[in-house]
Amino acid sequence: MKLLYTLLLPLFLLLAAPAVQAQQQDLELAREYFSQGDYSKAEALYGKLINDQRLFHVVYPDYLKTLLAQRDYKEAEKLVKKTMKRYPENPGYEIDLGLVYQASGDKAGAEKQFDKLLESMNPQEVIVVANVFMQHDLFDYAEKAYLRGRQLGNDPNAFNRPLIALYAYRQKTDKLIPEVLNLLQENENELGYVQSRLQNSLQEEKNANLLENELILRVQQNPNKLAYNEMLIWLYIQRKDFYSALMQARAVDKRTRSGGTRVMDLGAISLKNDDYQGAIEAYQYIVEEYPEGPYYLAARQRLIHAREAQVQHTFPVDRAKIQALIADYEALLNEVGRRPETAEVLQHMASLHAFYLDDKDKAIALLQEAIRMPRANPALVAESKLTLGDIYLLKGEPWESTLLYSQVEKEQKETPIGHEAKLRNARLNYYNGDFELAQAHLDILKLATSREIANDAMDLSLLITDNTGLDTSAVAMQEYAAIDLLIFQNKVQEALTALDVLLQKYPGHSLTDEVYFQKAKLYERIGDFGKAVESLQQIVSNPQYDILSDDALYMIGRIYEENLKDKDKAQQLYNDLLVKHQGSIYTAEARKRFRKLRGDKLN
Prior knowledge:
By secondary structure, the protein is mainly alpha-helical.
């Protein structure tokens, strides 16, 4: 018998082969008819093929689509119900029945069918049902499936991640926020995942407000859950509200006595983003709370650095405050000694002496001391050489400057300091009117790993190319670059006079908006805020100067707020910027300032 079976099997396969081949041809032909919209012919073929059990799962989806395309809802309903009886364990077919009702216009019938499925499904079917709903863009029902799964399992956190993904995809931030925070409640190690899920949702202010309110509530309810505090700090940083972030970090540190790491980080972030008062308070906190801690010396130095930055950006710069800063640095050196860790202090003192007190010889002596300091950090030595190069440029000795810049560039190849040295060499060539050589440096620096250096290189490169094109004489650009050198050398009145001459000499030149912007910055530097605003208005009121118009509008708003003390006018200007320049880099800061002036609670 076994021998007979062995002999006959190849014969059966041989006889069946033509039938299988014919079915395959019919299936391909049916698909071709369907793709061409010839549904009646496709239906005839699918209707025959569906009866073959081996082909059922291949034929069923396209056969159902064909029936729906022909609006043959009764036949479609019959097909689905028959399939449901044949495969009762597959809940996807029950969703198909609802889709048939939906396609026929029976919305109530579809909802009843979907709800019936949700009510009858078991916990093991939740993922399958939700996925099928999502495949058909029935996202509300997918959400209901997950929530029903929670009920069935009596677990309020079940299906947390699928719901987070669903809410993020649908941009349902009001539901996403509690869901991700519930995940954080269960596992504080999920902080990075939660932040990444919320990142894109915080572009809209209302969403950021929702998150802030929910976090504040949860911090109050769970004072020992540090992840919520970390989330608040992160949120404030996203909103560029560094002061609120600092207040939160300081509160956490006082409770945990964790050594001030978060506060030090916030001080650095605040200083980098020009929030000088925030940085000052951060470092002051470290100095007072941890006088024996590992961050004390760094905090002492950075505290004076932050005060220095604040003085340098409060116009007009107060000479007495510069002298007080130098005294603070001297006191620090007397306290901790002149050692490698304080070489940076010498560098800062030198800059203050040279750029604000016009004592270049004292500055040079301090920098040479820093450069010769035994065991000093090579990076600090390199920075001191760059500052020394700047001071020689102040003295009108550019050859000494370029020697120092080139020395650092060679010693610190492919490092941020080396790139900074190359940038200063490029700027020196620009000052001298050698734009071709400047561009050669800048083209390399555009690819620098430091975004700040790459951006500075791009800005200077664009300034040169935009104003030395084929239809533009390079003479005006050379004169403008020479004025830039005067500005670097603190020859403010001389520079202002030269800028006015440039405007008269080259009316309507492509440099005009740059000239007005430079004038505004110089007037601000000497405290003539009215003339600064007048210069900026020349840019804002002329649509031809669209590149700098958002810069000018923001600067006017800031002057009205900080210097002219006209809060209403400043608020109006910030609002104008938000409306007219939605893609501006100043949008976040303008919004924060606008909200503050309006009286919104920011923390």
